[in-house]
Amino acid sequence: MFFPRRCPFCDRVVGGAYTIPCRDCENKVPYIYGNTCMKCGKKLSEEEEEYCFDCKSREFSFSRGVAAFSYSKAMKKSMYAFKYNNRQEYAEFYAKVLC
Q1: 4-39 burial by CB neighbour count: b if 16+ within 10 A, else e?
Q2: Whole-angstrom Cα distance, residue 26 to residue 41?
Q3: Residues 6+ apart with CB under 8 A from 46
Q4: What is the 3-state composition of the chain as percent helix, strand, coil, each rounded to the nearest 5?
Q5: CA 18 to CA 36: how far, in whole Å?
Q6: How confident is the model over 61-97, as pLDDT tens digits?
Q7: Is the dihedral of CA 75, 83, 9, 37 positive or negative?
Q8: pTM of the predicted model, to two decimals?
């Protein structure tokens, strides 16, 4: 009531039986399907096999990463709002997808 759930892509209030993201944004979610890099989790192109070109060419300080979304315009806007506009309620959606 005081802090309604909001869609992480359009920031509209979702309530009642509606899920997150809202029905208008369900098709905008840039989920990653198919083969992903064994190191960073990025979607692999047809030329790449186990590791993406970035992970083959440099070393990282982590051993394994997981990605649920492609970094699209909609995802960039959502992550920006989460990180810099204090939209912490979006964490529920991100965690649900990753688990």
Answers
A1: ebbbbbeeeebeeeeebbbeebeebbbebeeebbeb
A2: 22
A3: none
A4: 30, 5, 65
A5: 31
A6: 888 888 888 888 888 999 999 999 988 888 888 888 8
A7: positive
A8: 0.71
